[in-house]
Design goal:
This protein is mainly alpha-helical and 146 residues long. The protein has one domain. The protein contains six helices and no strands. The chain has helices at residues 2-29, 34-45, 62-96, 100-110, 116-128, 133-142. Helix 1 (2-29) packs antiparallel against helix 3 and helix 2 packs antiparallel against helix 3 (62-96). The mean pLDDT is 86.
């Protein structure tokens, strides 16, 4: 049984490293909507000129359009960074063999983001729900989190 626990611990350590790598990828890709935020700021500041209507039509609502670019882009970036932070924290918990429930929640959240997140989430859930893995986390807690 000790051999099985060592194997489980090594697998959890490896899974934690994969979570770190995936969190870095998520954080990087979450930065792409910063392009929209930049365009929105440029529209709001007037750096991007919008031509006046030639046939007496209503002027283009640059403040509304720029504000929407900033708001939507910012929300998407913050959501992505929050997801990356959760995944990174779950990776840390996996590496330290702590907070089994947090690891399960993070694995479930990963399942919603295809294709890499789904693969990572499913593999994590299958392994974290395996018999004996919860005991590894509990044994770590009994030792005082060493």
């Amino acid at each position: 049984m000790k051999n099985t626990e060592n194997k489980d611990v090594k697998t959890l350590q490896t899974l934690g490293i994969v979570y770190y790598v995936y969190a870095a990828m998520v954080a990087l890709f979450a930065c792409f909507p910063l392009i929209h935020v930049t365009i929105g700021v440029l529209l709001l500041s007037g750096v991007i000129p919008i031509p006046e209507p030639t046939h007496g039509g209503e002027p283009f609502p640059t403040h509304l359009f720029g504000g929407m670019f900033v708001a939507v882009g910012s929300i998407i970036v913050l959501f992505g960074w929050a997801k990356a932070a959760l995944i990174f924290y779950a990776g840390r918990c996996l590496r330290n063999l702590q907070k089994h429930t947090v690891c399960l929640v993070a694995a479930a959240v990963c399942c919603f983001f295809m294709p890499l997140g789904t693969a990572l989430g499913v593999v994590s859930l299958v392994f974290l729900l395996k018999d004996g893995v919860r005991d590894v986390f509990d044994a770590r807690d009994e030792l005082g989190g060493l």
